[in-house]
Amino acid sequence: MSTPIKARIAVPRSKDLEVDGVKYNRSSTKRNNFEMYAWLFMRLSGAVLLALVFIHLYVNLLVEEGGVHAVDFAFVAGKWASPFWQVFDMVLLWLAMLHGTNGLRVIIDDYAERDRTRFWLKVLLAVTSAFVILLGTLVIFTFEPCPTGADPALLASFCTAG
């Protein structure tokens, strides 16, 4: 007859979690509602993104004759000539990036075991997300399909050399 083994299983996310001799400190002493707001943001941004993506697909693929084959440089240039579509695409970009970044942040929290690893992965995620948001926003608002003073041979066919 064997004696029962009494094992104490630590509560995940407890303050002093120790696994295989490695101590993890995943709780903070300061209570805040960041996770609740992040959860709420994911639900709201997901609903808004769903609407924005379907509008984006409808306008880009179904309104114009030719479907996906009609989307080219001239189509994007004509679309981004309107401030409405610039803001629309910027909101789509920002919401998609922030939604995805928040999702990856949760995955990092769930799967990165060490505090230092989790910290550097989140720093890398924040830097790359900020870079993509900044670069995408600059492209949307500084896009000039017909720059003045450019070589006419390099301009798109719809640009007037003058």
TrEMBL record:
Keywords: Heme, Iron, Membrane, Metal-binding, Transmembrane, Transmembrane helix. Gene3D superfamilies: Fumarate reductase/succinate dehydrogenase, transmembrane subunit (1.20.1300.10). GO terms for molecular function: metal ion binding. It comes from the Bacteria. InterPro entries: SQR/QFR_C/D, SuccDH_FuR_B_TM-su. The chain crosses the membrane at residues 36-59, 84-107, 119-143. It holds the Pfam family Sdh_cyt. It is found in: Membrane. GO terms for cellular component: membrane. This is Succinate dehydrogenase. It comes from Kocuria flava.
